[in-house]
Write a structure and sequence with these properties.
The complex is a heterodimer of chains A (167) and B (105). With 167 residues, chain A is mostly helical. Chain A has one domain. Chain A contains eight helices and no strands. The mean pLDDT of chain A is 93. With 105 residues, chain B is an all-alpha fold. Chain B has one domain. Chain B is 63% helix and 0% strand. The chains are: A mainly alpha (167), B mainly alpha (105). Chains A and B meet through α5 and α6 of A and α2 of B.
Chain lengths: 167, 105
């Protein structure tokens, strides 16, 4: 498969994987640590959405499905499919527990992307495409415009019933 | 063959976890629960430890691999039951740990 097309497809898959799993696991509902709350309130002050801000704060402060997706892709690239993803899942779990997080989002994200990488390898997508794709996916959330991305994350949280009750 | 090794490790970890009276699933809502259960994280740990042992070259593609997988499952269940919460204690929030520090003399 053409490398550029592969990276674009991998970016879309990675974006859906980590945003949907993180939202499902309740990242927009409440900040896990004080740092996540500070980030959420900061984004709200700049015109963003509070639930989306909590989501962004939480993925900065502990390895959630975003880190799980990236580390599983790196693991698959470095030591093979699917072992790399399984090793990444266990490392993300330990990282979660160190960061005051129960670890469901990170390990679920790592395991689902491992299954996706294994399945899409049959149509020519490689782990390195997923590494590049995940970098682009996380850039759209954390690197371009926080107020806009937080509003989008807030809308997704509302649709999935995970919107924050904190005012 | 490698898939059978994974299955043996996961199933043995889950069975021993149940024998050691770990709950099958964390309490509801699962996404906020810190309870160590059979499905999470015991099965996930068994999967990861087996992948590590496999990639470190300890699996030899002989019947010995099944015994190694069984040992990984047993050790994982014991680790989950007796050691996980000692190494990585549950932390509900930073606020609660701050409060406990303030309360202590």
């Amino acid at each position: 498969m053409n490398e550029i097309i592969g990276i674009i497809i991998a970016a879309v898959i990675s974006w859906l994987n980590f945003v949907l799993i993180d939202t499902w696991m309740g990242l927009p509902e409440a900040p896990g640590v004080k740092g996540a709350e500070v980030i959420g309130r900061g984004i709200q002050k700049r015109g963003g959405d509070l639930a989306g801000g909590f989501f962004q704060g939480n993925i900065v402060c502990s390895p959630d499905a975003s880190a799980g997706t990236l580390l599983a892709a790196i693991g698959c690239f470095a030591i093979g499919i699917p072992e790399g993803g399984f090793v990444a899942a266990i490392l993300v779990f330990f990282g979660n527990r160190i960061c005051a997080d129960p670890g469901y989002a990170g390990t679920t994200g790592a395991l689902t992307i491992t299954v996706i990488i294994a399945a899409t390898s049959y149509i020519g997508l490689t782990p390195e495409m997923f590494i590049a794709g995940m970098m682009i996916a996380i850039l759209t959330i954390q690197g371009l415009h926080h107020p806009s991305s937080s509003k989008l994350l807030g809308k997704i949280a509302k649709k999935m019933g995970r919107y924050t009750e904190i005012k | 063959m490698i898939y059978i090794v994974y299955i043996i490790a996961i199933v043995s970890a889950m069975v021993l976890g149940l024998i050691l009276k770990l709950p099958l699933l964390p309490e509801q809502p699962i996404r906020k629960s810190w309870t160590t259960s059979v499905v999470f994280p015991t099965a996930v740990l068994a999967l990861g430890f087996t992948a590590m042992v496999s990639k470190l070259g300890y699996l030899t593609s002989t019947n010995m691999d099944y015994l190694i997988a069984l040992a990984i499952g047993v050790l994982t269940a014991i680790f989950s039951k007796y050691m996980l919460e000692r190494f990585l204690p549950p932390q509900n929030s930073e606020e609660s740990s701050d409060e406990s520090q303030e309360a202590s003399p």
